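Morning, I've got a small favour to ask if you have a moment. The fold is given in discrete form, as structure tokens running alongside the sequence. I'd be grateful if you could look everything over and explain what you see. No rush at all, and the record is pasted right below.
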Amino acid sequence: MAKKVSVGIKYEINEYGLRRATSRDWTEDEVAEAVAFLKQEMPEGWAELEELERTTGDLRVSEAADNLFAVLSGLYPDCEPCEISQLAWKVRIARRTSLGLK
């Protein structure tokens, strides 16, 4: 079972009176923790994503990319989808960097 992490999210009220999470800046430590967690929780999926990065770079053909988003959403349940998307992007950059890719 994924460990749930509660994060302090700041909210603002938009012009319609609806609460909206403000943008979050993921630290290098948080990204490194997310990478370690993903490698542990979905090792086959992580390996598949690494192979795709090495070959085509097209992650759209893999369910592992969707699973990665779901695992990160479970790890950070208080975060908005846009924040999870930002983290997923930083995780991808970290993965590509570790593989020696741009």
Residues 1-6 have pLDDT under 50 and may be disordered. DSSP finds four helices and two strands in the chain. The radius of gyration is 15 Å.
